[in-house]
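New here. Your pick:
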Amino acid sequence: LVRVSGIVQGVGFRPHIYKRAISAGLFGWVMNDPMGVTIYLEVDADEIDASIKWLLSDLPPAALVSEVSFSEIATELASGFSIRGSANSGTVATEISVDLAVCADCLAEMRDVSNRRFRYPYINCTNCGPRYSVIERLPYDRANTTLARWPMCEACQSEYNDPQDRRFHAEPTACWECGPNVGFRENFGGKGFSEVVTSGISALEIAVDALRGGQIVALKGLGGYHLACDAANPDAVSTLRSRKFRKEKAFAVMVADLAKAKEIAFSDSYSDRLISSNRAPIVLLKKRREFFGVSPDTDYLGVMLANTPIQHLLFDLGCPEVLVMTSGNRSSEPIYKDDEEALSNLVEIADAFLEGERPIARRLDDSVLTASDLGESFIRRSRGYAPSYVAKLDSEREILACGADLKATVSLVSKSKVIASPYLGDLAYYEVQLAHEATVRDLLAMYKIDPQKLQICADLHPGYFSTALAERYHNAFGAPDIYLVQHHRAHIASALVESGQLDTRVVGIAFDGTGYGDDASIWGGEFFVGSVAEGFNRVSSLEPFLLLGGEASARRPLQALAGIADDDNWDLLSARVFDFDSVLLARISSLRHIKGVAINSTSAGRLFDSFAAVCGFIGEASFEGQAAMWLEGKARVGLERLSALELSRVVDYEFPISETGTILMRPALSMAIHDRMTGTGCDVVALKFHRGLARAIAVNSIRLANEHSLSTVVISGGVFMNQTLLRMLLDQLEPEGLTIIRNKRVSCNDEGISLGQAALCAFATRG
């Protein structure tokens, strides 16, 4: 009896085993069960290894085997090889298959005029299409999906039952005869959408006409609705920004294929493989072509390829070659997945509505990644990648980790596996809190977890919504006391548990915008020594400064600067070169002398904001991280503009390290202000800041590694989404022979916090 775990349900795994067994003349059966897949084989003892190797070779593209075990049982005297019905009882530990882009075979059929699925908008097979977004419960059978209400026609049922067919046991399979359809609705001037005026291909054709006419169209994807418009139409883009209240944050774009992507952005073989993969993420690429208003103040463009049949059909039918494709929601709310929800909330944004009949069980945003010589890094981990197994973690009980507030996720530990949820959003919004609760309910139900036995863990911050949600779950479930985890320790632990190095003692660097510290101040530029198993001691940090107005300074870079600058430097900011509004300067100056409006902080995020203000970012940030991203963009301009000789002559800013191990910031700030006042360009100032800070982090890390006899450095936290800073830091650490560990399976930003919480909780709560 062979037991296989991993992503083995909903990916054509059982049909694959069946075909391989038949071809080899093996006797037995295969079936889904709550732990994954069970295979019964009647073979001699000396043939077991070879038989298993044969069956598990050349797996379907979406399958992933994480563990295989076998045991000998009494012979059943099978008469051949068969696929059995699923076993539904017992604890669930199988991994849920993620949603996949439509495959080449299905696209070929969809474009074949003689095929019965010609232009069918929901074509799929065992190698592609919806999985997690349509699963209502495990095991993954049609009766447990949102397709259950559409009985298969005779032709589809025949394919489903045929072991030699690509749709053998393809649970969402459907066609024009028996499956869901699409419909088009018009908008009555923002007062409401009409009833469906047409369906099928004509609905798609009208949607194409609307897009070509400069309208904004809401259309259903795998994990929720998108808002689309012509990226080359400035008026359409401007209207979308205005209606969605998305002032400056970049939009992503969608194109039909890789060739078109390479026309609008620069890419290499690595990013080509990533953007063309069956996970179909948005990939940040350097612009080759500018689209007015799509991604302002950055030289990068988020690009994805069409990945659903509906999206491909829109391009086939002649929609604009480059579409803005953004989440169908009001800014900061979760993506809308239900038709009624989208119809109600998008009526003031979308001019037209392309409705999809297939229900979505779980909402999913598009995943976003960067691809460079540093590898791929998640900015947002969702469709195509989550939920999924991200680490092995032995625990005495199941653990629910509730994550952070910004970029919220949850992680569930069950049967030594950590399952990390998709990105949920910002918990400051009530709708995201509801999504958090729904995700917890879904994961507990799908994995049949007894909530009374759960160990719940959460962030140390007493004001976090995620911590309040953890308290709510604790009360509702009657679970044991909540274990609280300090934010930056969770960042370090997240990278270590990914790599399986739970006992390794390391120097940990955690740089981000905000996190509640042990001393009730706001941390964000931290150095630790320790391990996941023994815990982490804070041994160094950035120089503490005053965070004027608390978290309000995160939106106002000048206000962050006011908390760092000394009186002499602050007085210099009234110079004309800085172009700060005199009234604003006076108002913020008054905060510097009012007691009780500031808290102590070591936030690296606010340090970046402060230098952005010095370099000319004079307004308010309209989205999280905007000023820091702008500053990195300026540094990249400096790197590209200056020759190698000029770069060698640039004197980087000094961030001295005090005798107590604190990185001092004010000397660098004085140098930057002086440079601006003497005519140094903003790009050079930004470059000198990045290089100087990277050197200070490296020097401090090497010092700590030597003092504590350590050889491994962990780098995590949202600041290290900054690829320019990260590259500079690695260039100084790697020659020292240090082992560097970074996040790979989850983002280094706050999406990874729930994973780190789970790891630290597992060790801290052991009996």
About this structure: Residues 386-485 form a domain with the Nucleotidyltransferase; domain 5 fold (CATH 3.30.420.360). The mean pLDDT is 93. The chain has four domains: 2-83, 182-368, 386-485, 545-742. The radius of gyration is 27 Å.
